[in-house]
Amino acid sequence: MSNFALTTTLRSFVPKTISTFPRKFGTWVALFSLKSSLDLKLRFKPSRLIHMENKESSSSRGALIVLEGLDRCGKTSQSGRLYKYLDEQGHSVESWRFPDRNTGVGQMISSYLANKSQLDDHAIHLLFSANRWEKRSLMEEKLKSGTTLIVDRYSYSGVAFSSAKGLDIEWCKAPEIGLLAPDLVVYLDISPEKAAERGGYGDERYEQLEFQKKVAGSYLSLRDSSWKVIDATLSIEDVEKKLREVVLDCMITCHKGKPLSQLWPC
């Protein structure tokens, strides 16, 4: 069969209604194509957008939360309760404490605090700082992996206690420069007199009322925008509730990609 005959035959099978379609048929086709394109965009995100979302997700990290305050203010109890709550909620979280008495440096500090050894004030300050530097790399690794760290005492304690002994506060800060800055410092506020009324007070070297008054003054000079102050004389449950609120807000900010920073940059 010739091409002309084949074409003529095929035309005979084309429904006559097609020849009566309105001239706007092309417009309908264009609208249908646009709708299909929009549907595809809703189901399949452009590669550039996927890349941006992955980039944001990769910068997500854990939060560095530090609890500070005078001796017997309730830091250790609240750290434990906060850790338990976050862990039960499914968050990746660890509870840390300084000094870390499990390291070689930490054991020297522990002996000193228990009044089993004597050290120059400058020397013990540097040991406290060295104890924090021992954990610096691990701390950064944990945070970047998405783990939130609840830390009972940090550099602020070291500076507050040493400066309360009469050491120059800037000298006390110097060994801490370069350590990671907390995302949040929660200061559990209690008067030295009220703290002295709590059980176990006086068991360690620094638990002396007049000295704790000086420590309170040193803490006051260290406060900055990262600090939140909670009344430590409230009930345990009320302190815990306030603590959860500020910590969860901080964790959300860090999850969104807040960059890590360092303590007291020059």
From TrEMBL:
Pfam families per record: Thymidylate_kin
Keyword Nucleotide-binding annotated: yes
Cleavable signal peptide: none
Transmembrane feature ranges: none
Species of the source: Solanum pennellii
Associated pathway: Pyrimidine metabolism; dTTP biosynthesis
Alphabetized GO MF terms: kinase activity
Gene3D superfamilies tied to this protein: P-loop containing nucleotide triphosphate hydrolases
Domain (Thymidylate kinase-like): residue spans on this chain: 67-242
SUPFAM superfamilies for the chain: P-loop containing nucleoside triphosphate hydrolases (SSF52540)
Annotated EC: 2.7.4.9
Keyword Kinase attributed: yes
UniProt protein name: dTMP kinase
Keywords, sorted A to Z: ATP-binding, Kinase, Nucleotide biosynthesis, Nucleotide-binding, Transferase
Family statement drawn from the similarity comment of this UniProt entry: Belongs to the thymidylate kinase family.
